[in-house]
């Protein structure tokens, strides 16, 4: 029996953080090529990649949310992480869920046979933001329409599958992943984060300059909304002392601001680790 854990993540920062937690729990990187993934996953991912019409794509970094952005394993458990690129991707989450459910619902004549010995656990990760834990979970249950409502920080068996979710939070009324990360990273690094906080607070710029800047032959203008988020910037500024020019995902993955004992003692990390346990 292969225990498949499918994680729906808002972005790469989530995946980097979850990987840090699982790495100290015995999970290791699943470094196989897609063609060598367990059947029928290998065929399904190949199908998804081949179905993407590259000629219709624009230049730039392209991803396929139906193919995992990362994979970890421990014994008979394979954890797969999908990068949705935001919390509002309801259609995309439904497509991924349907893809996996169909894998074990095919007829024996189909190449994806119902004989594959796999169990499925689906875990959804969201920020509470300014919405709160309960409204986030209520919205997810409305999206899924299961016979029983799933709950925050629990694994339940419903309709033949296991389901769970975790809402990153500071308290029940709000918060996000960065609240957890800043708490973890500041411990034993107080002077560094104090200096970084001072730098950010003494170099504030207008909201207008926090928007994307368009500079062409025809015009100079700002567009969209402010892109500034103080906690993300704090992690980035502190992280640049270690990894110049690297993204927050790289910093979260590799920084020694987060130590093994921090992950073992933090209540969020302990609870998340338990969601991946059998």
Structure report:
The chain has 278 residues and is an alpha/beta fold. It has two domains: 2-175 and 268-275, Rossmann fold (3-Layer(aba) Sandwich), CATH 3.40.50; 177-259, no CATH class. Helices cover 38% and strands 19% of the residues. It is built from ten helices and nine strands. It has helices at residues 12-23, 41-51, 90-103, 133-144, 177-186, 190-202, 230-240, 248-254, 260-265, 267-275, and strands at residues 2-9, 28-29, 70-74, 77-83, 118-127, 154-158, 161-168, 212-215, 220-223. The strands form two sheets. It has a seven-stranded mixed beta sheet with strand order 2-3-4-1-5-7-6, sandwiched between helices. Strands 8-9 form a two-stranded antiparallel sheet. A hairpin with a 4-residue loop joins strand 8 (212-215) and strand 9 (220-223).
How is this structure best summarized?
Helices cover 38% and strands 19% of the residues. It has 278 residues and is of the alpha/beta class.
Keywords:
278 residues, two-stranded antiparallel sheet, 38% helix, Rossmann fold, globular, alpha/beta, seven-stranded mixed sheet, 2 domains
The count of DSSP E runs of length 2 or more, i.e. the number of strands, is 9
Would you give the CATH topology of the largest domain?
Answer: Rossmann fold
Number of domains: 2
* Contiguous runs where pLDDT drops below 50 for at least 5 residues: 106-114
> Can you summarize the main beta sheet?
7 strands, mixed
Average of per-residue pLDDT values: 92
Quickly give the CATH architecture of the largest domain. Answer: 3-Layer(aba) Sandwich
Strand arrangement within the widest β-sheet reads: 2-3-4-1-5-7-6
> What form results from the Cα inertia axes?
globular
CATH superfamily of the largest domain: PH0156-like domains
Helix % is 25-40%
Cα-atom radius of gyration? 20 Å
Secondary-structure element pattern, one letter each: EHEHEEHEHEEHHEEHHHH
| Secondary-structure-derived class | alpha/beta
Q: N-to-C terminal Cα separation, in Å?
A: 12 Å
- Counted by DSSP, the helix tally is 10
Seen as an oligomer or otherwise, the chain set is single chain
Residue share in β-strands: 15-25%
Supply the CATH class of the largest domain: Alpha Beta
